[in-house]
Amino acid sequence: MEKTKQKSFLDHIMDGIGYMLPLVVAGGILMGIGYMLDNPSVNPAHYGYNNPLAKFFSTIGSKTFGFMLPVLSAGISYSIAGVATIPAALMAGAIVKDGTSGFLGALFVGFIAGYITILIQRTFRKIPDTLDGLRSLLLIPLISVMLVGLISLFAVEPIIGQINTMLNSLLKSMNGSSQILLGSILGGMESVDMGGPVNKTAYLFATSSLANGQYALMSAVLAGGIVPPYVTAFASTIFKNKFSKEERERGITNYIVGLAGITETGIPFLVSDPIRVMAACIPGSAIAGGLSIYLHCSVMAPFGGIFILPLNSNPLGFLISMITGIAVGTVILGLLKKPIEEK
């Protein structure tokens, strides 16, 4: 119960995503390998399953990926109420997975399961300790599953399902220019706070699109996210007189860590000179995100940086997007930064 007081709604969501993300990464990469090993011309309707090896990777990948929403719900509820809430949250997550409410529904039922479990725990707290087994193994799981199931089926799924369907229809109806704009916005958001709430919001939006079978936005966000480490790395190497010795050393590290697309490595530069770093990295990331959409890039895996390049539908296009964004950001940062005199 102390967790509920200490953590914000965003904290609970990020905890849930922390549990979900390994499944999405593993499942997305495995499915991507399945597609790489297959030939769509054999049978386009069964792309990814046309030969035994491709079928193996696609099957275990899709099964792993399928746990995405139930685990997200369970992770959020566990962050709120602990182990007791997991049965109800997993059940509710399975309901929204099979329904139409998708990622949004999973968020809602995760919170609902957590707080309902807390209410039930408080209701039964006067039961003697000798009957603790009855309370924890029977009463709380049974009642929470029933209540959360009712709410999920008759409230969350119809209402959030309608909203989710509208959002998906809106995304699918977007023409080329509006999709590029969305990719640019999401890509630019990656550089605003480099791992903070704005960055995570863009990542969350792209991750939710994976659950709906839309992979282009994930590529745009990953392209935008890889820009800050390399903008700061190249700028500190090329314009040495504008960075301290410590910053130049960090820049060298960013060449390596940036391969994994870890945006947070740009934070020290952002903290020391926020205006100039943001003014350089945001346009670079926005260009990378927009170009990724324009060049029809898409990827199922939500993490991995350069290492998942072969899984992208257009690896060359992703590289072009990334390099262009980095080049623009590096030039801007080099022009904006003032020479420094080290003591």
UniProtKB/TrEMBL annotation:
GO terms for molecular function: carbohydrate:proton symporter activity; protein-N(PI)-phosphohistidine-sugar phosphotransferase activity; protein-phosphocysteine-sugar phosphotransferase activity. The keyword Transferase does not apply. It is a multi-pass membrane protein. One of its GO terms (biological process) is phosphoenolpyruvate-dependent sugar phosphotransferase system. The keyword Lipoprotein does not apply. Its main location: membrane. Residues 9-343 form the PTS EIIC type-2 domain. One of its GO terms (cellular component) is plasma membrane. Keywords: Cell membrane, Membrane, Phosphotransferase system, Sugar transport, Transmembrane, Transmembrane helix, Transport. It is found in: Cell inner membrane. The chain crosses the membrane at residues 12-37, 76-96, 103-124, 136-156, 215-239, 286-309, 315-336. This is PTS EIIC type-2 domain-containing protein.
